[in-house]
Sequence to fold (169 residues):
Amino acid sequence: METPRRKKIRLDGWDYSKAGWYFITFCTIDKSCILWPQEPQPPVGAALGRPALSPVGILVEEELHRIPIAYPMISLERYVIMPNHVHIILAIAQGGSRDGRPRAAPTISQIINQTKGRISKRAGFSVWQKSFYDHILRDEDEYLRTVQYIDENPVKWEDDRYNVKNVKI
Fold:
């Protein structure tokens, strides 16, 4: 019996350290809702504030803000921490650095895997499912639509495809 193969989710031939915008989503193990408090406050929209975070959610936010410090050629453009997943937009600077010094940019996989590892280490348990989803944002319109999606995501949690209450078995 042949073992199942994991579906390739990366774009063949694309250099994931190349300058550009990247939309990334990563989920908790078993989509466990551990990033918001167990009894979450009603989600609020970006204009009204942001959802409350659990202690693990706070670790996630702290580590997201460390990405541009650890990698000067990367900027954290936008993010939202949902109960069981995180959406972020990362930008890799043209020329490999925001500070003008040439540097080799890490790949998106290196950034996300190291960030997820630091979060799990600080939390004291494995937080994340394997891998992550990414999408290369190819133009400003796509970027702006993704920013809007991220901003509106908390108020749409009840209907979110990652909400385990919505998963059909």
